[in-house]
């Protein structure tokens, strides 16, 4: 059905889908509560924030970078929503636009830091992550704030097991899949991740590709923040902290390579669902909640070990 | 004297510029405090920031060797919880608490080092995952409610003074002195620099790079454990996540002090003023009434700006994935 490089990239996502299928089978056998309508709805709505954040992370990873500011951008977005969205009249559109623009700005700073100042991606994104967290704390030091109820109604409107948030996630995945595999820009992202020097020599504006992937990541993280804000119905300057690592873990579990250039965004979706399932299964099996930290960390290390990074001598990117 | 110091030290020159920056930070702090600062206040700043000072030295070592350790903050939190739980207010248990906490710290460093060195994994992701695992570990251990207390005898580390010198400051300075000796006067120290500068060449020159990597990660975790114990002596109670902000602060202090992210360049003599600069900057922000947010913002901005400057000054090097 799929040809050439696309088949190869999708093949890398297969283990994640296999794990997901195995987990679903395991959970439905061992807990009769798992396969209920309410629980499946729950898993999907719990996973949608991470699933959305993982899209942006995948863009950045494919290009050969990494974005550790995702978590703080998510927090900032919830805070912006909590502060702006209930202003009467212009509140809702203003909040949504401000949040997405803020995400894009964070991405722009990350991207320029990488291409203009040659700061290693993990360092610049770690720093902007810290900076953005500080700004979120300045805007709203404590969890709370007023989120517009109208917005809540729109974003939690249901359609079967899916609500608006998960439909948004699905739409974003479709868009990302088409962009990465069927447009010139997507091909350039893969090319830069595979070999930035050769991509540049073949006429790819590598710097522009790098900067835009970080901006995509920032904007997508802002959307993930909106979905999260709707779920907890408040703004919280620290709520997103775990999403930086979780989004990397979701992408890596989904077969996206850390050195860039291979893997598919669909793998990230499977990875995000695997991580979401783990939480859910542990609740079902009545495991003490804090074990999830240990398990998530161990999964990231294991996934890294399984998809061993083959280091190549590469010239500067 | 200075030229003698800098002889044969292309990559560990005395970082005079950092001391200039420190002077500026002190002036800024005095200005923000409207000159109502006494000299004893400055000594107290040195005393209270011994934990950061020691963990920054640990981070500098790892950075020199070409790695990074994002789990130092979690190790500090872990030692805080473990040592107080084991001591449980009884002075007889001090030795037990210290040994077990430092033992765990060493084990964590060993695992970090082995995974990074043996499997050639990117250190920032491995240590970040490790930080999450440690965090989960102490949450499971305490069930979310840390218990235990410190015997008063242990608080000598934080409250004690030898004449005009605070003991915490003394510990900091002796760790600095000892590791300076190791770095500049022993083959081991040279190996750390060379491994950081170019791991392949180091390996081909017969340096046991794997052993160096593992031992530096272990040393780093051990020092983070020590910093955690001193921090515990200061705050006196167990509390989850007390070390969290130290991870980025230690990186910021190292980088301000002139340590490079690509490995092989930097000094402990730069890290010392680096720590004080970060602390004074954050104290200034506290005076200006933005403590928490100011801490995050200053860490982020300082790391980004300093690394940006460092990368501009040096010629772009081959990018490293680990």
Helix content of chain A: over 70%
**What structural class results from the helix and strand content of chain B?**
mainly alpha
Give Rg of chain B in angstroms: 19 Å
**CATH level 1 class label of chain A:** Mainly Alpha
Overall 3D shape of chain A: globular
From the alpha carbons, calculate the radius of gyration of chain A and give it in angstroms. 19 Å
DSSP strand tally of chain B: 2
Main sheet overview of chain B? 2 strands, antiparallel
Number of helices of chain B: 15
Separation, N- and C-terminal Cα atoms of chain B: 37 Å
Q: What is the number of helices of chain A?
A: 13
Query: What fold name goes in the CATH topology slot of chain A?
Result: ABC transporter involved in vitamin B12 uptake, BtuC
Number of domains of chain A: 1
Strand content of chain A: under 5%
Give your account of this protein's structure.
- The complex is a heterodimer of chains A (317) and B (322).
- Chain A has one domain (4-306): Orthogonal Bundle (ABC transporter involved in vitamin B12 uptake, BtuC).
- Helix content of chain A is 72%, strand content 1%.
- A two-stranded antiparallel sheet of chain A has the order 1-2.
- In chain A, helix 11 crosses helix 12 (265-284).
- Chain A is mainly α.
- Chain B is an all-alpha fold and 322 residues long.
- Chain B has a domain at 40-244.
- Chain B contains 15 helices and two strands.
- In chain B, strand 1 and strand 2 form a beta hairpin.
- Chain B starts with a helix and ends in a 9-residue tail after the last helix.
- The model of chain B has no long low-confidence stretch (mean pLDDT 86).
- Chains A and B meet through helix 5, helix 11 and helix 13 of A and helix 7 and helix 15 of B.
């Amino acid at each position: 059905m799929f040809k050439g490089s696309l088949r190869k990239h999708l093949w890398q996502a297969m283990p994640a889908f296999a794990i997901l299928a195995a987990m679903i089978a395991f959970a439905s056998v061992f807990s009769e509560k798992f396969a209920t309508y309410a629980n499946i709805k729950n898993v999907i709505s719990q996973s949608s924030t991470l699933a959305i954040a993982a899209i942006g992370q995948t863009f950045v990873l494919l290009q050969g970078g990494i974005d550790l500011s995702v978590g703080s951008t998510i927090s900032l977005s919830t805070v912006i929503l909590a502060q702006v969205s209930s202003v009467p009249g212009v509140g809702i559109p203003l909040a949504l636009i401000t949040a997405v623009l803020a995400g894009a700005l964070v991405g722009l700073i990350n991207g320029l830091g990488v291409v203009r100042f040659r700061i290693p991606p993990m360092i610049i994104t770690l720093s902007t992550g810290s900076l953005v967290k500080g700004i979120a704390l300045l805007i709203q030091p404590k969890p709370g704030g007023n989120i517009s109820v109208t917005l809540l109604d729109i974003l939690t409107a249901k359609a079967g097991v899916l609500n608006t948030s998960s439909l948004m996630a699905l739409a974003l995945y479709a868009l990302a899949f088409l962009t990465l595999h069927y447009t010139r820009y997507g091909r350039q992202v893969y090319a830069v991740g595979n070999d930035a020097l050769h991509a540049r020599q073949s006429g790819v504006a590598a710097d522009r590709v790098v900067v835009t992937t970080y901006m995509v990541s920032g904007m997508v993280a802002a959307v993930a923040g909106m979905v999260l804000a709707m779920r907890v119905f408040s703004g919280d300057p620290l709520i997103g902290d775990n999403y930086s690592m979780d989004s990397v873990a979701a992408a890596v579990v989904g077969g996206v390579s850390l050195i860039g250039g291979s893997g598919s965004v669909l793998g990230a979706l499977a990875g995000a669902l695997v991580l979401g399932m783990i939480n859910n299964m542990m609740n079902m099996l009545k495991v003490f909640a804090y074990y999830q930290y240990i398990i998530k960390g161990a999964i990231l290390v294991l996934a890294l070990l399984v998809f061993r990074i083959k280091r190549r001598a590469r010239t500067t990117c | 004297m200075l030229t003698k110091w800098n002889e044969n030290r292309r990559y560990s020159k005395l970082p005079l510029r950092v001391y200039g920056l420190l002077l500026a930070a002190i002036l800024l702090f005095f200005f923000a405090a409207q000159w109502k600062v006494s000299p004893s206040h400055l000594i107290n700043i040195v005393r209270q920031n011994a934990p950061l000072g020691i963990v920054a030295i640990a981070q500098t070592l790892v950075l020199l060797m070409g790695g990074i350790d994002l789990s130092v903050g979690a190790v500090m939190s872990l030692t805080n919880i473990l040592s107080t739980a084991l001591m449980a207010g009884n002075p007889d248990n001090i030795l037990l608490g210290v040994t077990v906490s430092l033992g765990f710290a060493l084990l964590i460093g060993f695992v970090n080092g082995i995974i990074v060195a043996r499997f050639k994994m990117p250190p920032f992701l491995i240590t970040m995952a490790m930080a999450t695992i440690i965090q989960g570990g102490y949450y499971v251990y305490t069930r979310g409610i840390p218990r235990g207390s410190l015997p008063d005898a242990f608080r000598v580390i934080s409250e004690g003074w030898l004449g005009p010198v605070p003991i915490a400051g003394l510990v900091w300075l002796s760790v600095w002195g000892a590791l300076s000796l190791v770095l500049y006067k022993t083959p081991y120290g040279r190996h750390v620099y060379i491994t950081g500068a170019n791991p392949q060449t180091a390996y081909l020159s017969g340096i046991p790079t794997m052993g160096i990597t593992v031992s530096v990660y272990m040393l780093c975790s051990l020092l983070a454990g020590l910093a955690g114990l001193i921090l515990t002596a200061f705050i006196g109670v167990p509390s989850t996540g007390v070390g969290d902000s130290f991870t980025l602060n230690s990186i910021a202090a190292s980088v301000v002090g002139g340590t490079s992210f690509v490995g092989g360049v930097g000094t402990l003599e730069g890290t010392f003023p680096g720590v004080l600069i970060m602390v004074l900057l954050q104290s200034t922000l506290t005076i200006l009434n933005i403590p928490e947010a100011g801490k995050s913002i200053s860490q982020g901005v300082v790391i980004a700006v300093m690394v940006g400057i460092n990368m501009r000054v040096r010629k772009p090097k081959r990018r490293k994935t680990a």
